[in-house]
Amino acid sequence: MSLTKNPIAHMATILNSCCQFTPPCSTSTSRSYPARSRVSCSDTSMSSDNELRAKFMEFPYVSGPHRDLMVELVSSVENRVGSLLQPCTLPPGVQHFRNPTSTAQASLHIRSGVFSSQIDFMLGAWIHCKLPSGGALNITSLSAYLRPATDAPHFLMELIQNSPTSLVLILDLTPRKDLIAYPDYLKTYYEDPQLDKHRQRLQMLPEVSPYFSPSLYIRAVVSPTAIMVSIDVGTSESASIEGIIQDHISPIAKELLEFWLDTCACLEKSVGELEKVYLAERDGIIKNKTIEIDLVSSFPRLFGQEVANRVLNVLKGYYNA
Asked: How far apart are CA 2 and CA 273, in angstroms?
């Protein structure tokens, strides 16, 4: 699915390190980047929009508490700001896709903001792939980008699990300004709301340890209050991944999302024209890096070149890459 980094970008970093697939036969890459409003449906699937959304909302390969959390987060965004979002217009073959051997599949759900909204787009995703060593890697994510009309942070959450006893959690309001050069920004969005308490709360659990992304780029993009943790219950009889998701991760994720909705997405804020240019340029750099560095390398390996080209060409339209 990060992505700010977006969820898919960080997915790609994990996928590259975990999944050593031999890519199917490649095809030439198309250089046509369709605009959001002009994406055509080239897939022969007759699935309706409702069926495709329902397939995305199934989050079919994760545990009950994990699924419940993702459904509640997506539903919270749509319930709060649904009137500010357009329907998902992704082609069926991009909303849900798999590789030729069905060892990897994914579902994407993107809703762009209406013209008057501060929201650029919301992206939800899940990826499931069977690992060559046995077992499977499951990644679920939700992110939301804001437009340059506001300088408020973006929202990002990813749950990355490749065993029944461990997972990685990435949860952050990713800053859009230099926190050293703009101390008031740090105070408004991170210090005053005491966002670091969420990370501190999680790291009190004995099963939780800091997670350091192998990508220095990703580590440079997140905020100083970002939750980047690895959770491993091992053979513990008193703790489970499902229990930690339900009792600890879920309350924190819901609280952080509510704060983002109240303070960033729904609070009207305008910036000057020069600042809009700065924000648009900064967001654009990050979006381009997401596509060029992460997805272009990992998606062909997972889904084959033909499927990867189809999906990436559509995503480039959303990310203006």
From this structure: 27
Half-sphere exposure of 150 (CA within 13 A, CB side): 20
User: Residue 133: exposed, middle, or buried by beta-carbon count in 10 A (0-12, 13-18, 19+)?
Assistant: exposed
Q: Residue 275 corresponds to which tokens in the numbers above?
A: 């600042």
Per-residue pLDDT tens for 19-76? 433 333 333 333 333 334 333 333 434 357 788 899 999 999 999 999 999 999 999 9
Q: Cα(223)–Cα(4) distance, rounded to whole angstroms? A: 9
Q: Which residue has the tokens 């009889």?
A: 237
Q: Are 183 and 230 in contact (CB under 8 A)?
A: no
Three-state secondary structure call for residue 166: strand
Q: Could you tell me which of 316, 321, 296, 294 has the C-alpha nearest to residue 94? A: 316
Q: Which one-letter amino acid corresponds to residue 259?
A: F
The H or E element that residue 169 is part of is strand 166-174
CA dist 215 to 1, 73, 222, Å? 16, 27, 12
pLDDT tens digits for 71-81? 999 999 999 99
Q: Kindly report the pTM of this predicted structure.
A: 0.85
